[in-house]
From TrEMBL:
Gene Ontology annotations for the cellular component aspect, listed alphabetically: plasma membrane
Main location: membrane
Transmembrane segments: 27-48, 110-127, 133-149, 185-215, 222-239, 245-267, 329-351, 358-374, 380-398
Protein name: Glycosyltransferase RgtA/B/C/D-like domain-containing protein
Example GO biological process: lipopolysaccharide biosynthetic process
Domain of life (superkingdom): Bacteria
Compartments it resides in: Cell membrane
Keywords (A to Z) from UniProt: Cell membrane, Glycosyltransferase, Membrane, Transferase, Transmembrane, Transmembrane helix
Membrane topology value: Multi-pass membrane protein
Start and end residues of each Glycosyltransferase RgtA/B/C/D-like domain: 87-238
Amino acid sequence: MLEKFILKDDKLLMNKPSDSSIFARKALPFLILIFVLAILLRSLFVFVTGTQDFLEGDGGNYYTMIQQLAQDHVYSYGSEDPNSRVTPGFPIFAYIVLSVSSFNIDLYKWVQILIGAATILPVYYFIKANTRAVYGLIGALFVALYPPFIYMTGLFLTETLFVFLLALFFASWQRMWNKPSLWNIILNAALLSWGILTRPGMLPIIFIAALFLVLSKSKRRILFPYLLTVAVCFLPWVLRNYIVLHEFTILAAGSGNALLAGAFPYFKESANYTEMYALGLSQSQYGMRVILNGLSDQFFYYLGWFSYGKLYYLFSNMWVSSSLNFPKLYVYGGVLLHYGITACSIPALLYLLIKKNFMAFCFTGMLLFQLLFIPTARYGAPFFILTVMSVGLAAYSLQKGTKQVVTLKKMTD
């Protein structure tokens, strides 16, 4: 029974619809124009209008970490001693790029600009593969124009790389599902691993992907090589932590900080570190203690915080600042785009969940996982890649259903 539940998705949204329209055949020039537009907007912000310090805040910590890795061969965030406070997906990528370029920051900025602009390609591919070319181009245009996707390009943070990997994962999953060759399986599993090691918020996708593969009769054989590839990708990081730090850490030791910071409703209280140390608890353990005690003593208050409250902090505002320094009309348009796509994504996600769509389950899993941690607009921004894909798929499916109803009505009149 459960197997039939999942297999319905194979027929609905995992097969590419026939698309022989003139517009589809001529989509490439439009896609190139959108790509050029994305590069222009990002380079304009990074090199001309933006006033944001590229290495401010966490960016400066990452840069110091990478310098230390290059000079002293010590992998450590916020310390001179080895640690596992952050996952290696972004630091190792940045280390490779900066080492090759002799730590030329401007060159790294161009790499990040190109990655940000290139994100339109997997978004276009995924949406077009499930709908029509016009939907893919609209999704690509959203990625090119959405202000937070431009803003994040001007910061030395994980977001630009993570958003690209997130979009690339779903495009790769689509290809693997339609053509489950060994290469496609390895590529998708490797992208998932890199994405998780860049931002652990993708972790729930491993379990959702495994579930979909198990419950699809034609795809069960994929599961073993898929999980084996994930294990191989994680192995160097896990072994390094065990050998160097004598600890078994799969993700990051610093994740407890984000959990603890998000444990107190509406940020009205802060952690009592004196109590935490007296109890001999880690940040993760103390954070869970605060959450469980809160649910026990003030159930509805804490339930509201871990649902509506955190969703509000994640999505009520765009992740952008005055440093974007673009024309007000553009920023106001971005605000309308933000609230418009947010409003549309709610029914779209619910609709796709009913239709048992893989991406919708991943979106929901990632969102529920994120609700455990500190909610900020920065951590909400990557979800807008998933919102635009969700809205595109749902809009096409509804339009297709409406056309079928209209056609049927005409036939019966």
